[in-house]
Write a structure and sequence with these properties.
The chain has helices at about 15-25, 35-45, 60-75, 95-125, 145-165, 195-200, 205-215, 225-235, 240-260; strands at about 5-10, 30-35, 50-55, 80, 125-130, 170-175, 220-225. By secondary structure, it is an alpha/beta fold. The protein has a single domain (about 5-260), classed as NAD(P)-binding Rossmann-like Domain (Rossmann fold), CATH 3.40.50. Strands 3-2-1-4-5-6-7 form a 7-stranded parallel β-sheet, with helices on both faces. α4 links the parallel β4 (about 80) and β5. The radius of gyration is 19 Å and the shape is globular. The protein starts with a strand and ends with a helix.
C-alpha cells in the first residue's frame, strides 16, 4: 500500500529529492513549499503527488493546509519536516532578527506542522514524523550560532514528542553533516568548514535516501558514519571533544589567513 507523505520545503534541495524518491517508489508525496510554480513543475514531471503552496511560518496557513489535505485524501501516513535555511556569520555579526527568523522556520515551522497533524495521527491510531535536523543540532559550530540554536531546539522537540506519544506516533530525526545545497550560497565548502568536515560533504540525493529509510524505522540517525562516531565521542568525552573542535577551527582559521 502506497504511503501518503507530506514533505515541507519540497521545492529544492533535500526536500525535492525526498519527494522525487517517494514518487519513484510508488508513494504519494504531498509537496509543500512557498514556490508554487516549482511545485507544479515537479508534479507534472513525476506524474504523481500533489502540491500545496504554504509558508510554515504562518500558523493559520499551516492549519488550513492540514485541514484541506485531510479533507481531500482522508489521511497522512508520514510527515517529513524539512523546511529550513541557514546562513554563515559570527554570533555578533548576525542581527538578532536573523536568529528569530531561523527559529521561526527551522524550529517553529516544524512545531506548527507537527501540532496541526498530531491530532489526526492520534485519531487514526498511527503516524510517523521525520524531522530533518543536522549534526549542528547535536554539536555547536563557529559562525553558525543561529542555525545551531534552531536545530538544537528541533532535536529536543523531537525527543520530547517521542517520549510523549510513542509508540502511536513514531518520531525519527535525521542529522546529516554538511550537504551540498543552496545552504552554501555558491561558496566553496573549504572556505566555510575545516577540511576534515568539507571532505564529508553529502549529496542531497544520498540524504533523501536515508530519510526514506528512516521512515521504516524512525530513530535519531547521524550521517555520514564518520560524524556518527564523532557524536558518540562527544557524548563520552564532552570536554575533550570541545577542546579538539576549538583547536581544529583555530588551525583552520590560521590556514585561511595565511592563504590570503
Amino acid at each position: 500500500m502506497s504511503r501518503i507523505v507530506l514533505v515541507t520545503g519540497a521545492s529544492k534541495g533535500i526536500g525535492k529529492e525526498i519527494s522525487r524518491e517517494l514518487a519513484g517508489r510508488g508513494d504519494f508525496p504531498l509537496m509543500v513549499a512557498r514556490n508554487a510554480e516549482t511545485l507544479r513543475e515537479m508534479k507534472e514531471e513525476w506524474g504523481t503527488g500533489e502540491s500545496f503552496p504554504c509558508d510554515v511560518t504562518n500558523g493559520e496557513a499551516v492549519q488550513e493546509l492540514v485541514t484541506e489535505v485531510i479533507r481531500r485524501f482522508g489521511r497522512v501516513d508520514v510527515l517529513v519536516n524539512n523546511a529550513g535555511y541557514g546562513k554563515f556569520g559570527g554570533a555578533l555579526d548576525t542581527p538578532v532578527e536573523e536568529y528569530g527568523s531561523m527559529m521561526e522556520t527551522n524550529y517553529l515551522g516544524t512545531v506548527r506542522m507537527t501540532l496541526a497533524l498530531l491530532p489526526h495521527f492520534l485519531q487514526q491510531g498511527k503516524g510517523r514524523v521525520i524531522n530533518i535536523a543536522s549534526v549542528a543540532g547535536l554539536s555547536g559550530s563557529p559562525n553558525l550560532a543561529p542555525y545551531v540554536g534552531s536545530k538544537f531546539a528541533l532535536v529536543g522537540f523531537s525527543e520530547s514528542l517521542h517520549l510523549e506519544y510513542a509508540p502511536v506516533v513514531q518520531v525519527g530525526v535525521l542529522c546529516p553533516g554538511p550537504v551540498r545545497t543552496s545552504f552554501f550560497q555558491g561558496k566553496e565548502p573549504s572556505r566555510l568548514f575545516p577540511a576534515l568536515l568539507a571532505r564529508e560533504l553529502l549529496d542531497a540525493k544520498a540524504v533523501a535516501r536515508e530519510a526514506i529509510r528512516l521512515m521504516e524505522r524512525p530513530r535519531l540517525k547521524v550521517i555520514p558514519g564518520s560524524l556518527s562516531w564523532a557524536m558518540r565521542f562527544r557524548r563520552w568525552f564532552p570536554d575533550l571533544y570541545l577542546r579538539l573542535t576549538r583547536h581544529l577551527y583555530r588551525e583552520w582559521e590560521k590556514e585561511k589567513a595565511g592563504s590570503r
